[in-house]
Design goal:
The structure holds two protein chains of two kinds. Chain A has a single domain, classed as ACP-like (Non-ribosomal Peptide Synthetase Peptidyl Carrier Protein, Chain A), CATH 1.10.1200.10. The N and C termini of chain A lie close together (about 10 Å). The radius of gyration of chain A is 12 Å and the shape is globular. Chain A is built from five helices and no strands. By secondary structure, chain A is mostly helical. The mean pLDDT of chain B is about 95. In chain B, the strands form three sheets. Chain B has a four-stranded mixed beta sheet with strand order 1-4-5-8. Chain B has a four-stranded antiparallel beta sheet with strand order 2-3-7-6, with helices on one face. In chain B, strands 9-10 form a two-stranded antiparallel ribbon. Chain B is α+β, with helices and mostly antiparallel strands. The radius of gyration of chain B is 23 Å and the shape is globular. Chain B folds into three domains: about 120 residues, Acyl-CoA dehydrogenase/oxidase, N-terminal domain (Butyryl-Coa Dehydrogenase, subunit A, domain 1); about 110 residues, Beta Barrel (Butyryl-CoA Dehydrogenase, subunit A, domain 2); about 300 residues, Butyryl-CoA Dehydrogenase, subunit A, domain 3. Chain B is built from 20 helices and ten strands. Classes of the chains: A mainly alpha, B alpha+beta.
Chain lengths: ~80, ~575
């Protein structure tokens, strides 16, 4: 399993992915704003789980995106999952 | 399992008797009810007497639903006589699905007992102003001291009026969002007068007798035990339950196709032109064979889709969407092709077979719309393009699950509904298994055990499937607006799925199968020519006379035309 990334690295990676999805600049995506406000459809947001699985080398419940709808919340939740395995 | 024991065959035998002129399934009676826009009560009572409801309840909850392919076969058996009765009765499975997926054992057993006794359960998802957009739903449920209070309306709900129970998707967080909804199983009989009222039956183009109505709750108090699954878990639960219902619902299309094909063949045998039977004219044979190929493709897809619920449940978000998008569309094409052959008889209501053809054509229209329209299902596939491309390139697949899915004689495990997921990060094994299947088919052809011409068609499918994935990889993310090209691409991916399903079903069964459809891989050849003509219309594929050879089998078929007729299957019709 790859090493656990830092919160900053993970947060930056998420901003970059989401910016691609909603066709904006990563700097425009704030960590504390629900992703739906950037026009990210909640069902489409599940797709991010596939990207994350590849990036982190572990399987995830895609509904994590629904329970933690901001980048900050998602980053914390992911770190928690990674440190608990 | 001995074939004599199959419930669908027992039901078919019963319905043959009930088709007699004074029976509830008599074509004249069905036509009369349709004209009067009246519900087929007697037909549904006969289905209750048969015990069809128990087949909507998983065995683990006390019912007889052990195998989804058998539920497909049962519905197909009813739908080939009357889609109105099949849809009117079948709705109860849809109404119960959320409880089978997310309810407690206690809830599921209690509902199973009611459904087995013939209670009707409907499913309230859509609202007047929001259609397929479930996240926009306004009907609300607010907590009370000992339960929940429901307020608001569901509209265009099959059996909303006739059903004793209804599963309702309600907004439980005023802010909404994917965790803002919950599912409630509401027993209308336990609500005080005035707590709800049913909305008038809407008049419809097809299934005119069906109870397509609605229900409005006026501060209806339901007990805490009405909540199915977790508070806030409603959208997730509904999206998982839809994977079961979308897969099974295509049985309605298969039955409609059986019905229309039989009406057309009988007409073409009795109708004379230029002193020859219509059925003997080459210009009738070719479209008959082409239409029958659509049915074979639909059968292959629905067989693989319904077996996948048992063997590849983690991929059901894809297999169900692909099945529900592909099958009704293929059968719409079949109906249009057969209508051309029928000429005026496809249009007249009294001249031939009590106007059954025009009724089938009208009734079938709803199948591509309800329970998630073709567009909704294609969108669900488009959302997963990145995972599909990734998994195809890596050659990932669930080898054991795929083998069980595509081998008709393989025993089906009990479906593990806890493994259903909102997306399939492993992609779609059926398509990802195609490259390996092509190697096996080519090896058989090289040993003279499969026709070289068919192996060559399959290689073309392999190349076309590669090309479709390249185009999918080039699609920009569609998180906001989905471009029309993506829908076109999803349609092509469906064709790849259908072709891959055919190749693997054939490989899994060719050695054991007997009968004219399996001889010389006839059905596989026809399906591949058809799929390739969709994927690469500018090229010429194989020999179009395969449709004439197939038409010979259609015309001579003693019963319903089906690739499963000659196949000994385990837990499947």
């Amino acid at each position: 399993m790859p090493p656990i990334p830092s919160a900053d690295a993970l947060s930056a990676w998420l901003s970059e992915r989401i910016a691609t999805y909603v066709q904006r600049k990563p700097a425009d995506i704030r960590a504390d704003v629900p992703l739906a406000e950037y026009g990210l459809d909640s069902v489409y947001a599940l797709t991010l789980a596939g990207d994350l699985e590849d990036h982190l080398g572990m399987s995830l419940d895609p509904t994590l995106m629904w329970d933690h709808p901001t980048i900050a919340g998602l980053t914390q939740a992911l770190l928690q999952v990674m440190t608990s395995v | 399992m001995s074939t004599a024991a199959l419930p669908s065959q027992a039901l078919d035998a019963l319905l043959r008797e009930l088709e007699s002129p004074d029976g509830p399934f008599a074509p004249a009676r069905i036509a009369e009810l349709d004209r009067k826009e009246a519900f087929p009560d007697e037909a549904c009572e006969a289905l209750n007497a048969f015990g069809l409801g128990a087949h909507y309840v998983p065995t683990k909850h006390g019912g007889r639903l052990a195998h989804f392919p058998e539920l497909v076969a049962l519905w197909r058996t009813v739908a080939r006589r009357d889609l109105t009765a099949a849809i009117g009765h079948g709705k109860t499975f849809l109404g119960g699905a959320c409880t089978w997926v997310g309810g407690t054992a206690e809830q599921a057993v209690a509902l199973g007992e009611a459904v087995s006794r013939g209670m009707r359960v409907s499913w309230g998802l859509t609202e007047r102003h929001h259609g397929s957009d479930l996240l926009a739903g306004e009907l609300s449920a607010t907590p009370t001291a000992d339960g929940w209070r429901l307020r608001g309306e569901k509209w265009l709900i099959n059996n909303a009026t006739r059903g004793e129970l209804i599963s309702v998707l309600a907004r439980t967080d005023p802010a909404g969002g994917p965790r803002g909804f919950s599912v409630f199983l509401v027993d209308k009989r336990q609500l005080p007068p005035g707590a709800f009222h049913c909305l008038p039956k809407e008049r419809t183009h097809g299934i005119r007798g069906a109870d397509i109505s609605g229900i409005a709750f006026n501060d209806a108090d339901v007990p805490a035990s009405a909540l199915v699954g977790k508070p806030g878990g409603g959208i997730e639960l509904v999206l998982k339950a839809l994977q079961l219902t979308r897969t099974a619902a295509v049985a309605m299309s298969l039955g409609a196709a059986d019905h229309a094909l039989r009406l057309t063949v009988e007409f073409a045998k009795g109708h004379h032109l230029y002193e020859r039977r219509l059925v003997d004219l080459p210009r009738a044979r070719r479209p008959l064979g082409t239409a029958a190929t659509q049915l074979l493709l639909a059968e292959a897809v629905s067989t693989v889709g319904s077996r996948a619920l048992h063997a590849l449940p983690a991929e059901a978000s894809l297999t169900s969407a692909l099945t529900k998008a592909f099958v009704p569309t293929a059968i719409n094409d079949l109906l249009a092709q057969l209508a051309d052959l029928m000429g005026a008889r496809s249009f007249l209501t009294d001249v031939y077979a009590h106007g059954m053809f025009q009724k089938v054509e009208r009734d079938h229209r709803i199948i591509a719309i309800f329970d998630g329209s073709t567009l909704v299902n294609r969108n669900a596939v488009i959302n997963q393009f990145p995972a599909l491309v990734r998994a195809f390139r890596q050659g990932r697949r669930d080898v054991a699950g795929l083998a069980t899915t595509t081998t008709l004689t393989a025993p089906l495990p009990e479906p593990d509904l806890s493994r259903l997921g909102l997306i399939s990060t492993g992609g779609c094994s059926v398509v990802q298994g195609l490259p390996d299947a092509l190697l096996r088919l080519q090896a058989l052809a090289d040993r003279g055990e499969a026709p070289q011409a068919v192996a060559k068609l399959a290689q073309s499918l392999g190349r076309a499937t590669d090309a479709v994935h390249q185009r999918m990889a080039a699609q920009p993310p569609s998180a906001r607006d989905v471009p029309p090209e993506a829908f076109h691409l999803a349609e092509h991916y469906e064709a790849c799925f259908a072709g891959a399903a055919c190749v693997q079903l054939w490989l899994g069964h060719a050695r054991e199968a007997r009968g004219p459809l399996w001889h010389d891989a006839l059905w596989l050849e026809a399906c591949l020519v058809r799929v390739l003509s969709r994927l690469c219309p500018e090229e010429q594929h194989g020999d179009a006379s395969v449709f004439d050879r197939l038409a010979d089998v259609v015309v001579d078929a003693p019963g319903p035309f089906s690739l499963l007729t000659d196949a000994r299957t385990e837990g499947a019709p």
